[in-house]
């Protein structure tokens, strides 16, 4: 998971994650990952429109977001 997140950071790519919160709820988020610090991911959450920190172990799935532009 860390390699995939680091690749998204290096390539300035948005990602979509499924995250398990501390209270046991799962949420789907779209993020702009910024950096990995230890066991945490610092990111700008496009869903909440605010910076957030995520425990990497609580990220259940991660997928690159393809942004298509109209021609």
Describe the protein's architecture and organization:
By secondary structure, this protein is mainly beta. The protein has one domain (2-64): SH3 type barrels (Roll). The chain has one helix spanning 2-10, and strands at residues 15-20, 26-37, 40-45, 50-55, 59-64. A five-stranded antiparallel β-sheet has the order 4-3-2-1-5. It is globular, with a radius of gyration of 12 Å.
Short description:
The protein has 71 residues and is mainly β. It has one helix at residues 2-10; strands spanning 15-20, 26-37, 40-45, 50-55, 59-64.
List keywords for this structure.
5 strands, 5-stranded antiparallel beta sheet, mainly beta, 71 residues, 13% helix, globular, SH3 type barrels
Low-pLDDT segments, ≥5 res? none
Distance between the termini: 34 Å
Mean pLDDT: 93
By CATH, the architecture is named Roll
List the SSEs and their pairings.
Elements: H1 2-10, E1 15-20, E2 26-37, E3 40-45, E4 50-55, E5 59-64
Antiparallel strand pairs: 1-2, 1-5, 2-3, 3-4
